[in-house]
Amino acid sequence: MTLFQAIIIAIVEGITEYLPVSSTGHMIIASSLMDIHKEEFTKLFEVAVQLGAILAVVVLYYKKFFDFKRWQFYLKLIIAVIPAIVLGYLFSDKIDEMLESPTTVGVTLLVGGIFLLFIDQLFTKNTIDQEEAISNKKAFTIGIWQCLAMMPGVSRSAASIIGGMQQKLTRRLAAEFSFFLAVPTMCAATGHSLFLKDWKVNGVETKGYEMILNDSHNLTAFITGNIVAFVVAMIAIKFFIGFLQRYGFRLFGWYRIIAGIILLILIFSGVIHS
What we know:
This protein has 15 helices and 2 strands. By secondary structure, the chain is mainly alpha-helical. The chain has one domain (3-268). A hairpin with a 2-residue loop joins strand 1 (198-201) and strand 2. The mean pLDDT is 91.
């Protein structure tokens, strides 16, 4: 992976992480189109570049994240992230295998897009508009919904927002809680990849942080990628909240359908290897 390719992947991550279109799916597509070899650092980078996107949420909602008097807020996030941590730990290897499949992304983009076309009609009586009204049980249920995003192309944002709306949260609050939940979820995934997971580098088991620190090119790509992802994610988050309140999910649904169809055509025509 060149530095230019790392920047492109980071831009894709920043734009798509908080939109209901699947950041992982789009990074897989971008990697395939640029014919990036799926070496260990590339796989690590596609997870670790989320750090920049995480920081964007913390900065934009710093009053919420650093109001330590409201411990119930942190408790809800802990409860909501438990399902993802447990399932992520149990099925880590299987998830890694799916992350290399553009075909899986194409199918899930298409199916998820069809669902998004009708979500605004499915949840029309949502009245919970304040984070304080989200119970621990509702938080846990949203966390279970989020686990659907372990399949590439589903979209963590879409799954958790739909879960929130299914629990009677308004579109705005469901989106914001999805942003909040992204922080511990992605911190856990990134921390696992950097400090716990063993990567095979030239036949030697290596921790993620060692892979980055022991190679100046990897370190440059990691730092640059996260800076780019942070800036782009800040813009994307501000755009999404306003767009969602005005127009709902329908346009995102059509986008996913079109993107899924195009991706499957490229795969079946041999332009992208499945």
